[in-house]
Design a protein that fits this description.
single chain; 3-stranded mixed beta sheet; globular; DUF7869; DUF7869 domain-containing protein
């Protein structure tokens, strides 16, 4: 929440601007791998599945020449574990935008307590404390850039990079599958280039199952899965802006 000037009592009871940091932090200790922080604020967009998917795609495009990518993430259904999320990866890996041949999505078991991203976010928090008075988005961006001893790539997302993705899966096909896959049970997904099939595994099983969940019209023409990119930010409500200006005036 910005501004972070909690030494002033008025700020503690005032609505502030939300800023978002979707971080991709490598598990490897190799020097060539640095965290990637995708940043935006609520004046640009919110924090729903469309924004999260768009940030994931920025990460994959930044690593488009890697042949195989493994991503660990949590089980948040509203953001990074839903059929729209899955549809977007089926499209992207089969497009000419990236050269990735195989993409793994691994989900932590519910109740996990710590990830490598948590360590990076702690470093960002320390950087904000050293900054003492981060007033705006530029200050926040600078704090992220100086985290991890400056070994971090920062992408400030703009509205033209956020897309409204389509759910291209067929609920009829999903219901006919035996056994029927439920998102809450899935522990790993594998996407491969040149196929629309998705392999999945559950928390209770070590066996992978290939499934066809794409609607037929998209299978006939995968270009129909392309998203619509936004051309205008969502903006900040007048009530919050007025309160924000009052902070500066006090």
């Amino acid at each position: 929440m910005l501004p972070r000037i909690n030494m002033f009592k008025k700020v503690l009871f005032t609505k502030r601007i939300s800023v978002y940091n979707e971080s991709f932090v490598p598990l490897s200790t190799q020097k060539k791998h640095f965290p990637l922080a995708v940043l935006w604020h609520e004046g640009i967009a919110g924090r729903k599945q469309e924004e999260i998917i768009s940030s994931f795609h920025l990460f994959l495009k930044a690593n488009r020449d890697t042949k195989e990518v493994i991503i660990w993430t949590d089980n948040c259904v509203s953001q990074n574990k839903n059929w729209t999320f899955i549809s977007s990866f089926i499209y992207l890996i089969n497009s000419d935008q990236i050269g990735i041949k195989k993409l793994h999505l691994k989900y932590f078991e519910p109740g996990h307590s710590y990830t490598s991203a948590d360590s990076f976010h702690h470093q960002v928090e320390l950087s904000l404390k050293r900054q003492k008075k981060p007033y705006d988005f530029n200050d926040f961006t600078q704090a992220v850039k100086t985290a991890n001893n400056g070994k971090v790539a920062v992408e400030c997302i703009n509205i033209s990079q956020i897309a409204d993705w389509k759910k291209c899966t067929s609920i009829i096909k999903i219901n006919r599958l035996e056994p029927r896959p439920f998102l809450r049970d899935i522990s790993k997904l594998i996407f491969r280039k040149e196929t629309l099939l998705v392999s999945y595994r559950t928390f209770e099983s070590d066996t992978f199952t290939d499934i066809d969940v794409v609607q037929e019209k998209y299978k006939r023409n995968i270009k129909l899965m392309q998203p619509t990119f936004r051309n205008s930010p969502c903006g900040v409500g007048e009530d919050k802006k007025n309160l924000y200006y009052k902070i500066w005036a006090c």
